[in-house]
Design a protein that fits this description.
The complex is a heterodimer of chains A (about 250) and B (about 300). Chain A has 2 helices and 14 strands, in the order H-E-E-E-E-E-E-H-E-E-E-E-E-E-E-E. Chain A is mostly beta strands. In chain A, a hairpin with a 4-residue loop joins strand 5 and strand 6. With about 300 residues, chain B is an alpha+beta fold. In chain B, the strands form 3 sheets. In chain B, strands 1, 2, 3, 6, 13 and 15 form a 6-stranded antiparallel β-sheet that branches. A 6-stranded mixed β-sheet of chain B has the order 9-8-7-10-11-12, with helices on both faces. In chain B, a hairpin with a 2-residue loop joins strand 4 and strand 5. Chain B is globular, with a radius of gyration of 19 Å. Chain B starts with a strand and ends with a strand. The chains are: A mainly beta (about 250), B alpha+beta (about 300). The interface between A and B is large, with 72 and 51 residues.
Chain lengths: ~250, ~300
C-alpha cells in the first residue's frame, strides 16, 4: 500500500470534498449501485436545483430548473433551463461497474453553439476502484443509512455521508451528503449537500420511464467542438480530471 | 437601488468641474454605468461626455451625468483560502500575493471602503466594509485553515454581491453615489461551478464589476482538484462574467495589484435616463468613443457592463 504524504492527504481530502457536490448531485445517477449499466431503465425527468446560503446578511435561496434523461445504455443528459447541457457517455465494463476511465463528458452551450469534450479519469481517487487506498477511512467519512422514504412518489432508500474535520485542513465543519435512491430505477431522486453555511438540494420530479430521443446524446452538426487544455499531472496521483480550461473562440 | 436610481437631472458640467458627489433625488429612473477607458493598457483621462456614445438596446442615450475618478469605491476582495493556509506560507506565491494585496490597500482613498471574504469549503466574511486599509491588511494576514477554494469561488462571488446589496439597502435615500466592484484573487483554475446567469444579472442589478487577478497555483496544490462541476453553468470560466460586468482579468499579482486598483478607481461613471422597459427585462448596454474621440484616442478600448435588469 502506498501511503501518501501529508500534502497529498490534503489533496485527497480536498478532492473528496470537491467531488461531493457532483457525487451528491449527478455522478451517482450513472454509477449508482442499481442495475447493471447495460440494463438501465430509461428515464426522463424534470430536475430542480436549489441553493440556500446562510450569510451574515441574511439567507438567500436560488432555484434553477432543468431536464434529465437517461438512456438504457446508461448515457445521461442534463439540461439547465438557460441553455446548457451536460452529456455523460458511459462505456460499460463488466456487469456492475462502469469503467470510469472511459466516460466522456460533453458540455454544450446552446447559445454559443459550443461543445466541450472531456474524457474523465477519476479512478485513482475512487475508493471503489482503488481498494488499496480507502479515502473514506483516511478522512473520517461516516456513512450511515437514512432508512426508506418516498420522493416524488417513488420509494427510495436513503444514505448519508458525513465528512468530518480531517487532517487539520478543514476548519468549517462537516460536509453532509444525503442521497435518496430509487433502487428499482437505480437512480438517486434526491440529493442534499450541506456545509455549515450552504446547502444544495436537487430533486428529480415527474419521473417517466420511457426512452429518450437518441439524438439528445449527440452534438448538433452546426456546433463548434472545443478541446480541453489538459492539466499537467503533478505528484504521485495520476489524474487529469476535468478540463481546467478550454481553447475558447472569441465571443 | 443605485444602479437604477431615482433622479433629478443634474448638471454634468458642474459635476465634472467640481468633482462633487453625485446625488439623485426623486423623479426619473436612471441607469449608472462605470467604464474604464484604456489606450495601450493605460487609462485615458479627461474625457468629456461628448467623447462617449452610450446605447441601450442599440438606441443612443443622452448622458445626463458624468464623472471621472471621484466617485468613492466600495470594493470586496475575494481571496482563495488556499493562499492563506499556514502550510502555504512558505510556498512561492502566497506570501507575495498577500503582501502585494496588503500594500495595494494603501492606495485606497479616504472615502473608499474595502471588505474581505475568503473562500474555502464555504465563503467566510473576514472583514466588513471599512475605510481602514490597515484592518484589511491585517485580515489578509490572518491565516485561514481551509481545504480548497475550487468550487466555492463562484459562491464567494455571490457572497460579495450579497454584501454589497445589503450595504446598498441599508444606506439612506439621497446619499452620494458609490462605485461597487469585486476583486477576486483566484488561481489559474477559474471555472464556473455554480449558475452564472443569475449571478451576472445580480451583478448587473447592483452595478458591480467583477475583476479577477489570476495567480499561479500554490506549489503543492495539484491540478487534480479541477473537477466536479454541475451542469448549471456555461462552458466557460468566470472571465466571461468579468467581461459582462465591465471588469477584467489580470495576471501577475505583484505587478498588477496597484494597476488594477488604480484602474478601478480611475474609471468614469456616467448616467443616462432609463428607457421604458418591462420590469425584469434584460437590457443590453454598449459604450464606445464618438468618431471624433476615436481619432483623438486611436486603439482605445472601453470596458463597461453589458447590460442590466429593468425595474
Amino acid at each position: 500500500m502506498v501511503v501518501p504524504g501529508r500534502g497529498w492527504l490534503s489533496v485527497l481530502c480536498g478532492a473528496l470534498i470537491l467531488t461531493a457536490p457532483i457525487r451528491a448531485q449527478f455522478w451517482r445517477i450513472t454509477e449508482s449501485s442499481g442495475p447493471a449499466p447495460e440494463s438501465n431503465k430509461p428515464v426522463i425527468a424534470d430536475i430542480t436545483l436549489q441553493i440556500t446560503s446562510t450569510t451574515p446578511w441574511g439567507t438567500y435561496t436560488q432555484s434553477l430548473k432543468g431536464k434529465f434523461w437517461r438512456a438504457r445504455n446508461g448515457d445521461t443528459r442534463q439540461d439547465a433551463d438557460f441553455g446548457t447541457s451536460r452529456i455523460v457517455i458511459v462505456r460499460p465494463q463488466g456487469k456492475y461497474m462502469v469503467d470510469r476511465d472511459k466516460q466522456t463528458q460533453i458540455w454544450i452551450d446552446h447559445e454559443a453553439k459550443l461543445a466541450a469534450i472531456d474524457v474523465l479519469h477519476l479512478s485513482p481517487l475512487s475508493p471503489r476502484t482503488s481498494p488499496a487506498l480507502n479515502v473514506n477511512a483516511i478522512f473520517g467519512v461516516d456513512a450511515s443509512t437514512l432508512g426508506v422514504g418516498t420522493v416524488a412518489g417513488h420509494e427510495v432508500i436513503g444514505r448519508q455521508q458525513m465528512i468530518q474535520k480531517s487532517g487539520g485542513t478543514i476548519e468549517e465543519g462537516p460536509v453532509i451528503m444525503d442521497m435518496w435512491v430509487d433502487p428499482r430505477l437505480g437512480i438517486p431522486l434526491q440529493n442534499r449537500y450541506r456545509t455549515p453555511t450552504n446547502e444544495m438540494f436537487q430533486q428529480l420530479n415527474n419521473v417517466e420511464e420511457r426512452d429518450p430521443d437518441p439524438n439528445l446524446f449527440k452534438i448538433p452538426d452546426d456546433y463548434t467542438i472545443i478541446r480541453c487544455k489538459p492539466a499537467k499531472p503533478r505528484g504521485p496521483i495520476r489524474y487529469s480530471g476535468f478540463c481546467q480550461s478550454y481553447d475558447l473562440p472569441a465571443r | 437601488m443605485n444602479a437604477i436610481a431615482k433622479v433629478i437631472l443634474v448638471s454634468t458640467a458642474a459635476l465634472a468641474a467640481a468633482g462633487q458627489d453625485v446625488r439623485f433625488e426623486t423623479g426619473v429612473t436612471n441607469i449608472h454605468v462605470d467604464l474604464s477607458v484604456l489606450q495601450k493598457g493605460q487609462s485615458v483621462h479627461e474625457l468629456k461626455p461628448s467623447d462617449l456614445v452610450v446605447r441601450d438596446e442599440g438606441q443612443v442615450q443622452p448622458i445626463i451625468a458624468f464623472q471621472e475618478a471621484t466617485v468613492p469605491l466600495d470594493l470586496v476582495l475575494l481571496v482563495d483560502a488556499a493562499f492563506t493556509r499556514p502550510d502555504q506560507k512558505n510556498s512561492k506565491n502566497s506570501p507575495k500575493m498577500i503582501a502585494a494585496a496588503s500594500e495595494a490597500m494603501k492606495q485606497m482613498r479616504p472615502r473608499d471602503r474595502t471588505a474581505l471574504i475568503s473562500y474555502g469549503t464555504d465563503p467566510r466574511l473576514d472583514q466588513e466594509l471599512t475605510p481602514d486599509s490597515e484592518r484589511i491588511a491585517a485580515a489578509l494576514e490572518r491565516p485561514r485553515i481551509a481545504a480548497f477554494g475550487g468550487p466555492r469561488r463562484f459562491l464567494a462571488i455571490q457572497w460579495a454581491l450579497w454584501l454589497l446589496q445589503s450595504d446598498l439597502k441599508s444606506r439612506p435615500e439621497n446619499t452620494p453615489e458609490r462605485k461597487r466592484a469585486i476583486l477576486m484573487l483566484a488561481t489559474d483554475e477559474v471555472m464556473s461551478w455554480y449558475p452564472d446567469e443569475p449571478l451576472i444579472q445580480g451583478l448587473w442589478g447592483t452595478d458591480i464589476a467583477l475583476n479577477i487577478i489570476r495567480i499561479p497555483e500554490p506549489e503543492n496544490r495539484p491540478a487534480a482538484i479541477s473537477f466536479g462541476r454541475s451542469a448549471f453553468h456555461r462552458i466557460d470560466n468566470v472571465e466571461h462574467i468579468a467581461q459582462a460586468t465591465g471588469g477584467a482579468v489580470f495576471t501577475d499579482p505583484e505587478k498588477t495589484f496597484p494597476n488594477v486598483l488604480a484602474e478601478i478607481q480611475s474609471s468614469y461613471s456616467l448616467w443616462y435616463r432609463a428607457p421604458e422597459a418591462k420590469p425584469g427585462e434584460l437590457r443590453h448596454i454598449t459604450v464606445e468613443l464618438s468618431d471624433a474621440a476615436k481619432k483623438k484616442y486611436p486603439d482605445t478600448g472601453i470596458r463597461a457592463r453589458e447590460g442590466y435588469v429593468a425595474h
